[in-house]
Write a structure and sequence with these properties.
globular, 11 helices, two-stranded antiparallel ribbon, 2 strands, 73% helix, mainly alpha
Length: 289
């Protein structure tokens, strides 16, 4: 019985790393731009379909295609921030909400028109292979996807910690007025940040196709999931998003094992409610001044 529990927890941790990467993009955007990307899940679904097309048409493994997909999403995010979203920064929250929900609807319907409503599996050649480590049977696809997600997260943390651009972005997040006073190009840094956020979700979406079929209706569910993770971890906290992603992954795995797969969301929202009651700023969030 212990072996079964260990298998469930390990599978949840591996899936949670993907969730954490997806939520990192949302957390980065909110932490700097102070804008909630309500089209976040829809961008993840677009990335899933991009990885699906590259695999089906050219045989490119999602582990490889996530790099060009992330780069393409960075360019898209940079352009979106410069041309459309920047005009809404600082506007009332409901105007930002309408803009991004409208963008989400456009993305979902575009995917529906091109691919239809049916699920599209990648059918990777190693999809049913697994590693046996003692009593554990671990799916290869989840291991590969989790390791790739962890590598992207590490690269992102390194970028913000050790590069001049990353330091400048953190300065904008900490003190926008001070950053502008010392001459930082805030508009450009906002665009870079939004591009990084979309690059994260692009990489996460490319990896998600390894463990889940691509379906247009997943967009709102992924947006809600990412938003839940960010709130649990603490708004604007990158480390919090990763930790919360792991918690959600494990809780969903346990819920699917103990009750039913359809009850996974109940556990996630129960965890959200508990965190909001006991620690409103999130697990690693800062208390408002």
């Amino acid at each position: 019985m212990l072996a079964i529990w260990l298998n469930v927890v390990v599978q949840g941790i591996l899936t949670g790393l993907l969730y954490g990467l997806m939520a990192l993009g949302l957390s980065v955007i909110f932490g700097v731009v102070r804008l909630v990307n309500f089209a976040h899940g829809e961008f993840a679904v677009v990335a899933m379909y991009a990885a699906f097309v590259l695999f089906r048409a050219f045989g490119v493994d999602p582990l490889v295609s996530m790099v060009p997909i992330a780069l393409a999403f960075f360019v898209i995010g940079f352009a979106l921030q410069r041309t459309l979203i920047n005009a809404f920064v600082g506007r009332p929250d409901h105007e930002q909400f309408i803009l991004l929900v409208g963008l989400a609807i456009v993305l979902v319907n575009a995917v529906l028109i091109v691919f239809g409503p049916d699920a599209q599996p990648a059918n990777l050649p190693y999809a049913f292979d697994s590693y046996m480590i003692g009593p554990l049977f671990i799916d290869k696809v989840r291991v590969y996807a989790a390791v790739a997600a962890l590598a992207v997260c590490a690269a992102l943390f390194g970028f913000f910690r050790f590069t001049r651009t990353g330091t400048a972005i953190r300065a904008c997040a900490d003190n926008l007025v001070g950053a502008a006073v010392i001459g930082l190009d805030v508009r450009k840094l906002y665009a870079i940040t939004f591009g990084i956020g979309l690059a994260c979700v692009g990489a996460a979406g490319a990896l998600m196709i390894m463990i889940s079929d691509a379906v247009p209706s997943l967009g709102p569910a992924y947006t809600l999931l990412a938003f839940t993770i960010v709130i649990i971890g603490g708004l604007g906290s990158m480390a919090g998003a990763l930790v919360a992603g792991l918690l959600i992954g494990v809780s969903e795995a346990l819920a699917g094992f103990l009750i039913a797969p359809s009850m996974k969301s109940m556990f996630s929202f129960a965890l959200l409610v508990a965190v909001l009651v006991l620690r409103p700023q999130g697990l690693l969030g800062k208390k408002p001044a």
